[in-house]
Amino acid sequence: MRNFLLIFFLALILIPVAKAQSYKGSYSFQKNPYPAAVIQVSYEEDVVTDAVKAYMTRKGYKDAHYKDFIVYRSVPLTEEPASTVDAYFNINQKSHAEKDVTIISLIPVKKGETLIPANEEDSAYIRMAVGFLDSMRFNILSYSLKQQITAQQKSVDKIKSKMLDLKNDSGDIAKKIRSYDSDLQQNKKDQEKLTRDISKMSTGDESGLAKAHKKMDKLLDDQTDYEKKIRNYKADLEKNTENRSTEQSIFETANGQLESLQKRLENLK
After folding, report:
1. What is the residue range of 97's domain?
2. Residue 5, domain member (yes or no)
3. How far is residue 15 from each of residues 45, 139, 144, 197, 264, measured CA to CA in Å?
4. Backbone angles phi, psi at 71, to 5 degrees
5. Same domain (yes/no): 107, 139
6. In a shared domain, residues 138 and 169
7. Total count of domains within the chain
């Protein structure tokens, strides 16, 4: 069952990235529809926002904010000088039910103009904006994957650390069991010797017999204590073994997810 779930997870994360592509769409702002270039990516909104900002920063653009938009001024959508626009990005999760899917909408606005519903002569800018988003796609996906890989690596390292702690605890518990078992065996030998010594004592040696019986009572109390501790530590060792098995399964799943993310990143190149 665990293997099936892992395969199912891998299938989910491998398919959407390859199909992410920009298209002409629409974005509603202040009750007006705006033609926009749109792309949908299978990552959370915060990660995608950081990816867009990182890409634009590397290109030398500084972000500004207007209402629901991240704005970059004087951005050439193509190599043509006439393609320079102010790029209005809106980045939002697709829905509450799909929090790990983010939609990027890019509205190109003629340099120096305000954000107003586009007319027909602006349609060329939308086509160029679609191409611009497509040119960003690899960087957005690559950045997002790297962030996800970093987070997943931290999870794997945390699990490995817990597994190491459990292994060390197992050794400590086993050592205590051996120590108390040794004490218990010695205790039984001491009881046998004391029993022989008592049998040799004179019935008239009341003081000696009283001391011997007091010592025997102490040995019996110690025996009970050793046996109780051994039982408890054996129960701890059994629980530790169960926890190690559980963590091993969790590690295999988490590490499999990490390897799949790394493979996705390789496939992007």
Report:
1. 18-150
2. no
3. 19, 18, 15, 81, 10
4. -115, 135
5. yes
6. no
7. 2
User: CB pairs under 8 A, 24+ apart, for 23-28?
Assistant: 23/130, 24/126, 24/127, 24/130, 25/105, 27/90, 27/105, 27/107
CATH code where residue 43 lies: 3.30.530.50
Pair (166, 261) in one structural domain: yes
Residue 29 lies in a domain: yes
Neighbour-count burial of 77, counting CB atoms closer than 10 A to its CB (0-12 exposed, 13-18 middle, 19+ buried): buried
Report how far residue 249's alpha carbon sits from residue 236's, in angstroms, rounded to the nearest whole number. 20
The full DSSP string for 31-44 is TEEEEEEEEEESS-
SS (H, E, C) 167-200: HHHHHHHHHHHHHHHHHHHHHHHHHHHHHHHHHH
Exposure class string for 199-221: b at 16+ Cβ within 10 A, else e: eeeeeeeeeeeeebeeebeebee
Tell me whether residue 233 is in a domain.
yes
Prediction pTM value? 0.71
Q: 44 and 129 share a domain? A: yes
Structure confidence by residue, pLDDT tens digits, 175-227: 999 999 999 999 999 999 999 999 988 777 889 999 999 999 999 999 999 99
Residue 10 lies in a domain: no
pLDDT per position as a tens digit, 111-164: 877 777 655 446 788 999 999 999 999 999 999 999 999 999 999 999 999 999
Residue 126 carries which side chain, given as an amino acid letter? I
Sheet with 69-76: strands ordered across: 23-29, 32-41, 102-110, 84-93, 69-76, 63-66
Query: Helix 123-200 and helix 45-58: axis angle, to 10°?
Result: 120
Nearest to 89 by CA among 18, 142, 22, 19: 22
Asked which of 150, 172, 207 is the last residue of a domain, the reply is: 150
Type of residue at 218: K
* Interatomic CA distance for residues 201 and 212, integer angstroms: 10
